[in-house]
Design a protein that fits this description.
Blueprint (H helix, E strand, L loop, with lengths): L1 E6 L4 E7 L5 E8 L3 E9 L14 H11 L14 H6 L15 H11 L7 E2 H8 L3 H9 L12 E2 L18 H12 L12
Parallel strand pairs: 5-6
Antiparallel strand pairs: 1-2, 2-3, 3-4
Organism: Thioalkalivibrio paradoxus ARh 1
Keywords: DNA damage, DNA repair, Methyltransferase, Transferase
Protein name: Methylated-DNA--protein-cysteine methyltransferase
């Protein structure tokens, strides 16, 4: 596990976390005025110590610029934990004090995700029943989660359990993001061997 820190511009603090042998790195940005701005898994740079913001993928840069235009909140939401610490030990995970801007439905889903304890999973259907929604709408809100890891959409899997597939992560069922979802669930010692209970 490695971490690097740099400044994007002005008061924006950019941090990167690297998993061994992973094709992706976790990047998040925050500022003193706005708090947590953006977080995502992005293609790993060849130089883990790279600090050049221009190396960030255009999608992440766009998300960051949109977040910087949000109205300044009365109480900025600070990152609730250091992701590098969490990636070493999942006991460091804490829910954020508030949620990012989003539709009322998405925010209800993200709140429900933040109530799932480390090491546990829920099905899309369970979350849907909890908030009076549909599993498909829950999946869409998971896909649009702007703060992965901080808002643990990786803890939502199909009702049939892990053996049928972990479900999508950021809209991908295969590839590097799906691998990260599997890694995160195993890292948290989630019970992935059986169907999700109906509780």
């Amino acid at each position: 596990m490695a971490a690097a820190r740099s400044s994007v511009s002005g008061d924006v603090d950019l941090r990167r976390c690297f998993l061994p042998r992973a094709a992706l790195e976790f990047v998040f940005a925050s500022s003193a005025t706005h708090g947590l701005l953006a977080a995502d898994w992005v293609e790993r740079t060849s130089d883990p110590g790279a600090s050049d913001a221009a190396r960030l993928p255009p999608g992440f840069r766009g998300t960051l610029e949109r977040a910087r235009r949000w109205p300044v909140p009365a109480a900025p939401v600070l990152p609730p934990f250091d992701p590098a610490d969490y990636l070493r030990d999942p006991a460091h995970w804490r829910a954020p004090a508030d949620l990012p801007p989003g539709t009322p439905h998405a925010r209800k889903v993200w709140q429900a995700l933040c109530r799932i304890p480390v090491g546990e999973v829920r099905s899309y259907g369970q979350i849907a029943r909890e908030i009076s929604s549909s599993p498909r709408a829950v999946g869409q809100a998971c896909r649009s989660n702007p703060w992965p890891v901080f808002i643990p959409c990786h803890r939502v899997i199909p009702a049939t359990g892990w053996r049928s597939g972990a479900g999508a992560y950021a809209g991908q069922r295969e590839g590097a993001l799906a691998d990260i979802k599997g890694w995160l669930l195993k890292h948290e010692n989630a019970d992935l061997g059986s169907p999700v209970s109906r509780r």
